[in-house]
Each structure stands twice: as structure tokens, then as C-alpha cells.
Amino acid sequence: MSYVSKLCCTYCATTYPKTDLMNLCPKDGRPLEIIIDVAKVKEELPEFSWYRPQLKSMWRFGSLLALDINNEQDRRNIVSLGEGYTPEIPLHQHPLAKKHHFNLFLKDEGQPHKNFGSNPTGSFKDRGMSMAISMAKQFGVKKVVVPTQGNAGDSLAEYAMKANMESVVIMPDDTPMPILGRVSALAKMHDNVTIELVKGTIKEAGQLMKEKYVPQGYFNMATFQEPGWRIDGKKTLGLELAEPNDGLNQAWSLPDVVLYPTGGGTGILGMWKAFDELQALGLIGDKRPRVISVQSEKTAPVVNAFDSNQDDSTIVEAGETIATGLNVPGGVGHFKVLDIIRKSRGAALAVDENSIKENLKSIYHNYGIWICPEGAATLAAIEPAIERGLIQSGDKVVAFNTGSFEKYLPNVRKLLFV
Amino acid sequence: MSYVSKLCCTYCATTYPKTDLMNLCPKDGRPLEIIIDVAKVKEELPEFSWYRPQLKSMWRFGSLLALDINNEQDRRNIVSLGEGYTPEIPLHQHPLAKKHHFNLFLKDEGQPHKNFGSNPTGSFKDRGMSMAISMAKQFGVKKVVVPTQGNAGDSLAEYAMKANMESVVIMPDDTPMPILGRVSALAKMHDNVTIELVKGTIKEAGQLMKEKYVPQGYFNMATFQEPGWRIDGKKTLGLELAEPNDGLNQAWSLPDVVLYPTGGGTGILGMWKAFDELQALGLIGDKRPRVISVQSEKTAPVVNAFDSNQDDSTIVEAGETIATGLNVPGGVGHFKVLDIIRKSRGAALAVDENSIKENLKSIYHNYGIWICPEGAATLAAIEPAIERGLIQSGDKVVAFNTGSFEKYLPNVRKLLFV
Q: What class of enzyme is it (chains A, B) (predicted)?
């Protein structure tokens, strides 16, 4: 069995048995996190025997994860399609990196790269869903439902199919066609996949889920509503940031700055959890990257709260942004995102639509990389980050590209040509 | 009203009134063509008054088409989404063009280009479907059905929706996801779009159409089964080949060689028809390009017939090719394709899968153009065409890229990366 010890509320710190199949914390409606007993990992598994670096997927982090691929019984529940273990691509020629003398890398979750893993549905959501469906399988869950702004939808459907679970995916009717179409096609071809379309955003999708599917016994896989599963999958982003090229002989270390696009914020919570666990394991110290949470100025609840010194976000009106994954008007985990970016001496920055489009276009034409609008938003945040002194000369800066632009066609095609 | 005079069988030359709503020739089961009274166009509309060069779509050829945009009554039936009027992109740096001193151009039907028209569903099928749905509207047709290997499917659905017709699209269940997904999504979102999936190819799709939908009164829009409509749409490919940059002041002329990927062959019949009409109009002489019909060696009925001096193709087993649009085991119009390529002193050439993939990859990386596997097949045919003396020094050679690679994702993505 894995080294999970319990569940813990990210807000009130109440703990729950790891065997409880829960959603949010019953006391305060906040997200739960899975607690890994890292001290026990350290004691029982010295010298990297927890680690499987030959494995080209996120499951390489073995005993640090909620399901341990080193364990026979856990391994039977792991539902993997090769997700995670993505490269940091150097963008040394980026004009701002050259001008201000920092080292810029793009952590590319979108397209496959030689000698690395590959997210099967072309986005970072696969990390969370691989873990969440695996955990659901361990708990004997047979039916799952997710409301989504897009990428989590086809991801859930693929992993649920692989696990022979029934799935319902609820998304806005203006979700980009490669996602809406793929899930529609899966629903057409497979009886155990259902698609529901709503007017509006993930908010309306969540309402339909609660009214129609949760009462029918579908397990709620919405961001943070599963008990820490998706956070523990996204945690592998942080573990990979720290992982050296040769994990067994070189030092583990963190970048100086991380730029991350923020809808719900699972990835930021996951990365922060990774850093704490690596520190508990003795692989890194207490220094953390400055975490910069990037949103579209059209829908910027975290930025609003950060700028006005609030502890939590207030729900905003949904805007219209090409970065559909950022069109998230509020979130039960935003208080924790705000806490993390403040602790890290980072910030929350909003970028405009035009700078998102320009960055997507220039990375395509200069590097041939198919970044998504959310990834372009993180690059668009570099300039304001420099202006605020958040990026300095000599820094290692990692910007996250969370998916492939192919999932945003035809909208992004129109940006690249004509 | 347009200058259509009658319908004529491409095989037995029997003519039928233009007011008949027919499918194949009842005498021999061969395709019908629409006859335009070009002599009358020439007499009544001198000095290019038939032509609308300011219009950035295939409808610019006004009175030469089966529906005439210059005519008030016809114009009300035209269902246009901006299709056609695509550029010939010079590939002057292509190694074979440089080595053998010919001028190579890619007629790009896939992605949008500045100052040109743009096929709304990203393939040449939009030309045929724009014309076919417009003609169906003129005839008062309310329900249409099409069997397809892919690109004709989403195209029909889009034009039928625009015309408020009911449509049924029947395709193989292994059709590339951007097409299968898009039609599934349209079917999910709109009551008047239906998708049916079959095991096999367009052949099995055609059987289901005849058994289930034709008896329910759906009009058969399969290649060649509508009475010459799709041929007359594809005819605009040939008109554009001849059209000078300034149609009013420069001479119209044809290239020396045309490389065209061949499934059913509508485009080849359409282009040949265009050349004859332009000659009748006095804009070009009797010289024709050498027409090279390109197929995948996996499914090559036209090449087999050409190589063995047969007048018609024999149905082959469907193969497995990345160029799914070429996976057409037989066709009622192949006799005419064979006739045209022989009259033109061209040929039919089969290319292997590896050369298709290599050409797709090199055009993407060297020119940034998103070609489809069928377009890559035409480029792969250049080398064998040179070896057979079909391309000579000084020739103007036009290879057709019939669609965007984005409609073949994720298969083609795997070729470009890793």
C-alpha cells in the first residue's frame, strides 16, 4: 500500500481517515489534500528506492504519490496513458530573456517530445485525471461526472473509458471544437460516455452536475471536489520542476520563478505540496520559487483579490477570453492560491487578450511549439513580472504551457495565418 | 437564370432536361455532368461581364457556373461560406524543383491565406458542397445524405445547416477525430444533423445510405450521385488554375503539369470540364496540362487500371493509408479519370506511405504549411513523375493540397514531433 496517511482540509486542517470517500471538507466546504507520510517514506525507502526514473510518466515518483507503482496492489489500480514527465524547453532566444539576462524555459504539457512522456489528451489535465480515476478505481467507484471549461472533459472521458467506468462530461456549448467534438464522438461511439452542453461556463455546468448527476450516484470529479486526488496528480508538475536530469546523482533544485495560468488553481496547490514533500524528504531546502498566478484580464478573480489584499476571491462575471481554461469566475481553492503566492513572494497578474494572441503566434513561428492560449498568457505575464521586479537577472524562470493549441482550433488557426 | 442547358451522361452522352432531379444516368449508372451553354455566355456577356473578380470565393466565376451570382433569382439559392479562390504557393526551394529546373506551386485548399478565399471546413470538398447544397436548394430539396471518407462529411453538414436542410452524414468509425468529432458535435447540438458510423470505408457507408436513408426520401449527395453538382463546384479549381493574377488584362493560361490526389475523381472531371469551357469561351487554346492522378499504393484502383491499360477500374480491397481520403476502393467515375489522364498524356501514380509522411513533415517544417496526407501524396509523386519524363525542365507544375492537416490530427501530429 501507498504512504498515504490521511486526508486534511487545506483551510481548517481537520483530518479524516484515508479510507473515507469524501468531497469537500464537511466543516467549511474547502478542498481536502492527501497527506503522504514522507517521514515514513524516508525511513523505509532510503537511497531513492521510492523513485522509478526509468518510467516515462508521472508515475515515476512512485512512493511519493497517492498510489505507489512500486506496490503490487496499488499498481493494479493505476490507470495510466503515459501522462506527465514533460520537458522544460529552453527559450534562450526570447527577446525579454536576452534583454534582462534571465534563463527562460517552457514546461510543455501540450505536444509530445522525444524521450519524454506525453499527455494523451494534449493537456496538463491528464495528470490530475490519471490520478483521480486511479483513486476512484481503488475506491470501487463505477460512475463519475465532471463539469469543465474544456480540457478536463476529454481527459476524464478517456481515463474513465480506460478504467471501464461510466462518465458524464458537462461543458459550455462554446467549448473549443476539438474538445467538444472529441467528447461528442466518444459519446456517440461508447455507451458509457455521456456529454451534456450548457450555456455559460463551468459554473452552470457544475449546477447541472449537482442537480442531475450527483443524485444519480455519479461521483463528483470537479476541481477540488474529489478528495485531493487531482491535486496529487498535478503535484507531479512540482516534482518534475525539482527533478535533475539525472535524479540519482545530481542535486534536486527549484527554479527561481514559476509562471502558472490559473483557473481553479489545482496546479499551484499541487506544486506547493510537491515542494513541501521534497523538503521533508531532504532533497531541497526551504527556498521556494516566486509563484506567479496568471489570469486573463477578462476573468481575474485571483488577481482582483491579490491586488485588493483579500484573503479569498470574490466570484466575478465570466468574461470572454480566447484562453477558455481561464474563464473560471471563482473557486473554493483560491484562498490557498492567494496564500501560496504571498508566501512565495510572487504575485497574481492579469494579461490582456492581445498579448495572449501575440505570444501564441510568436512561439509558433519562432519555435514551432504549439502552445495553448493559457500557455501564451503565462508568457504574456513576463513583461509585467519584470516591471514589478518579480523576475531578476540570472533567474531561472519556468513558464507553463498547459496544453496544445490543437485543442483550440479553429480559433487559434485564425491567429497564426491571414 | 444561369446558362445551364441540360444534363449529359459522361459515358453514353445521353442528355436530360436540366429540370430533372436525378442521380446517376439511368441507362448506364454513370455520372452526369451539367452542360453550360458557353456559346450563349460568350454571345450575351462579352468582355468578362460574366466574371466577378472582386468576389473572394469560387462564385467569382459567375455565369460560367451552374448557379449564376449575377442573376437575382440564382443568387437567392447560392449557399456560400467563402469557399474557393485559393492561392498557388510557390515552392521554389523544393529540392527536386531546383535540381530539375521546373517551377513548383502548391494549390493550397487547406488553410486561409491573406487576400484569398478560405474553405470553411478546411478542405476542397467545400467547393463541391457549396454548389451541391445550392443546387439542392434550387430544387427544393429538404433532406440530404452523404457517405464519406471524411472531409465531405463535415462540409455537407455545415452547408446543409446554413441552408436549413436536414442532413445525415455516414462515415467510417475510424475517420480522423477532427471530422468525426465535429460532425458528432453538430449532431449533438442541432436536431437537423445526424451522424452514422460504420465499420469499413465509404463503400459500407454508401450501403447504409441506400438501405436506410434514400428510402426515407433523403437526397443522395454521394460523389457523382447528385447530377453533376459537385463536379461543377470542383470545376472552379480548374478555372482558378487558368485565371491570371489580373483576369481582366492578362492572358488566361494553364500549367504544364497538374498533380491531383484521386479518391472518386470529381476534381479531375471538374478541372477538365473547366478547361473545355474556357476554350469554348476563347480564353485558352486546346493545350492541356498533363494530369497526374495520385493514389496511395495501399488502395490504388485507378493506378492498377492505368498500368494494365484497362478502360475502367476494378474494385480493390480497401487498404490502410494515412491519406484516408484516398482509401476509396472503386468509383463510377474512374473510367473518365482514366480517359482524361490518357488524353492529357499524364499518368496515374501510386506512392508509398513513408513518402507521404516525409513530404507532409518537410512541408510543415520548411514552409509552415499545414498540408494533409493527400496533399503530401501529390508531392510524393513528383519524383516518380520526373523519372517517367512527365515533368520536364521549365514546366509549371501545380500540386494540389486538398485540405489542412488539422483535420487529420492527432495522427499527423505524431509525424511532426517525437
A: lyase
Across the range A301-327, mean pLDDT stands at 96
For range A133-160, the mean pLDDT: 97
pLDDT band at A247 (very low <50, low <70, confident <90, very high): low
Q: Chain A contacts of B197, Cβ < 8 Å?
A: 188-189
Q: Does residue A2 belong to any structural domain of this protein?
A: no
**Beta strands B143-147 and B219-220, pairing class:** parallel
Sheet holding A143-147, edge to edge: A193-198, A166-172, A143-147, A219-220
Assigned C-alpha cell, A55: 518510467
- CATH number reported for the structural domain that contains residue A107 in this entry: 3.40.50.1100
Report how far apart, in Å, the C-alpha atoms of A250 and of each of A243, A244, A253, A283 are.
9, 6, 9, 10
* B122–A418 C-beta distance less than 8 A: no
CB A369 within 8 A of CB A361: no
Residue B405 is assigned to a structural domain of this protein: yes
CB contact under 8 A, A418 and B118: yes
Can you give the pLDDT at residue A415? Answer: 87
Mean pLDDT for chain A? 96
Asked whether residue B404 is domain-assigned, the answer is: yes
| Chain A residues touching B189 at Cβ < 8 A | 173, 197
A32-36/A4-9 β-pairing: antiparallel
pLDDT confidence of B401, banded at 50, 70, 90? Answer: very high
CA distances from A161 to A186, A205, B112, B337 (A): 9, 21, 36, 45
What proportion of chain A, given as a percentage, has pLDDT over 70? 100
Q: How many residues would you count in chain B? A: 418
d(CA B224, CA B209): 15
- Please indicate, yes or no, if residue A412 is contained in any of the structural domains: yes
How far is it, in rounded angstroms, from Cα B91 to Cα B94? 6
- Separation between Cα atoms, residue B4 and residue B243, nearest integer Å: 22
The amino acid that residue B266 corresponds to is: T
Q: Which of A112, A177, A404 sits opposite B418 (nearest CB)?
A: A112
Q: Do A178 and B409 touch (CB under 8 A)?
A: yes
User: Which of B265, B321, B319 is closest to B294 using CA atoms?
Assistant: B265
Give which of A194, A205, A275 is closest to A235, Cα–Cα.
Answer: A275
Query: Which phi and psi angles does B128 have, rounded to 5°?
Result: -65, -40
Radius of gyration (Cα) for chain A, nearest Å? Answer: 20
Q: What mean pLDDT comes out for the span A220-243? A: 98
Least CB-CB distance to A114: which of B114, B184, B418? B418
Average pLDDT, integer, range B376-401: 98
Cell 503522504, located at residue: A36
Does pLDDT of B418 surpass 80? no
Domains contained in chain B, number:
1
Give the count of beta carbons closer than 10 Å to the beta carbon of residue B352: 14
- Which residue in chain A has the smallest CA separation from B415? A112
N residues, chain A: 418
Interface of B with A (CB under 8 A): 111-114, 118, 122, 173, 177-178, 180-182, 184-185, 187-189, 195, 197, 365, 368, 404, 406, 409-410, 413-414, 417-418
The domain containing residue B400 runs over which residues?
88-118+229-416
DSSP labels, B40-106: HHHHHS-TTTT--TTS-SGGGGGGGSSS-TTSHHHHHH---SS-----EEE-TT-HHHHHHT-EEEE
- Residue B120 C-alpha cell reads as 470553411
Residue A376 backbone phi and psi in degrees, to 5? -65, -35
One-letter amino acid identity for B176?
P
- Residue among B111, B180, B409 whose CB faces A417 most closely: B111
Cβ-based contacts of A408 with chain B (< 8 Å): none
Q: Could you say which of B173, B368, B413 has the minimum Cβ distance to residue A189?
A: B173
